[in-house]
Specification:
It is a single chain. Helix 3 crosses helix 4. By secondary structure, this protein is α/β, with parallel strands linked by helices. The strands form four sheets. The protein has an eight-stranded mixed β-sheet with strand order 5-8-2-1-11-13-14-12, with helices on both faces.
């Protein structure tokens, strides 16, 4: 029995070899979020996947937000969680909390800083515990992410919510060239130093495009793009970006999937080889996506 199991493990490695060769020395950007960011077993699987890919020569860049953690801290500090058109209204106090939670910026007047300044450094620590070499960064570091104020669809004031205007990839390339896994928190700044809260999917897409990444992977809590949103068996495994307007007209792409898929389309049009929306609830979904012929979820080219 053990001999058969060892043969199976050996065959898995042999089958993965072409994909290891394909991605060797290539950049893969992973946007980390959803249930995989809150479930401890899934979180451990994601960290081990990223370290494994790094060890076989894939240059992984991990991009993260932290919406639930931000909401939790705002509640603790008795600051209103307010959303306009699905976007978090970000006033001065809220943007301080965003920096504190995502990037470890400590404001002594806000309270509970040690518990708040956790997301980025926690991910770095988890990667290190899995014998990875990780470096925590945020979009403010090295002017990595420049932004300007974003307004709602009908011109609503969203506070300090930003639209990314430019990406300086050099800090990321420096980290990669020194063998680190960059872990990037999605806050940005403008030319005057004002900090903005930026959407993590959008940031990941722009970063992937600037890096000319081989693949952009968006981790979500759904199987991918479904013809029937209530039936996982209707998964659409492959989509050409030229088909997206038609799928929107048919109502297949709707609701919260629209901005995610728009990010995929933008990334492909800016030079990323392919993008994928995968189910982060499936253990080791990143490995399935990168090291198998069928992948997982929906791929966009």
């Amino acid at each position: 029995m053990e001999e058969n199991y060892n043969k199976l493990r050996a065959q898995v490695l042999v089958d993965a070899l072409p994909y290891i060769q394909k991605y060797n020395d290539k950049i893969v950007v992973v946007k980390y979020g959803g249930n995989a960011m809150t479930n401890e077993k899934l979180k451990q699987a994601v960290m081990s996947d990223i370290v494994l890919l790094s060890l076989v020569g894939v240059k992984v860049v991990l991009v993260h937000g932290g919406g639930p953690e931000i909401s939790d801290m705002l509640n603790r500090l008795h600051i209103e969680n307010k959303f306009i058109g699905g976007l978090r209204y970000t006033d001065k106090d809220t943007v301080d909390v965003v920096k504190m939670v995502l990037a470890g910026k400590v404001n002594k007047g806000m309270g509970e800083p040690a518990r708040a300044a956790k997301v980025n450094k926690e991910l770095v620590t988890l990667l290190s515990r899995n014998h990875g070499k990780a470096l925590g960064l945020c979009g403010i570091d090295g002017d990595m992410l420049r932004a300007e104020r974003k307004f709602g669809a009908n011109g609503e004031d969203l506070g300090y919510v930003g639209d990314i205007t430019s990406v300086n990839e050099q800090p990321i390339l420096d980290a990669l060239s020194n063998g680190y896994i960059p872990v990037i928190a999605t806050v940005a700044s403008d030319e005057l130093g004002q900090t903005y809260n930026v959407n993590a999917d959008t940031a990941a897409a722009r970063i992937a495009a600037q890096l000319r990444a081989e693949n952009l992977i968006l981790m979500t809590d759904i199987a991918g793009l479904l013809r029937n949103k209530d039936d996982p068996s209707t998964l659409i495994p492959n989509v050409n970006v030229s088909e997206v307007p038609f799928l929107k007209r048919k109502g297949i792409i709707s609701g919260g999937m629209i901005p995610k898929i728009d990010c995929c389309v933008e990334a492909v049009r800016r030079g990323v080889k392919k993008t994928a929306i995968i189910d982060g609830r499936v253990p080791h979904s990143i490995l399935i996506e990168t090291l198998s012929s069928e992948g997982i979820g929906t791929q966009f080219r």
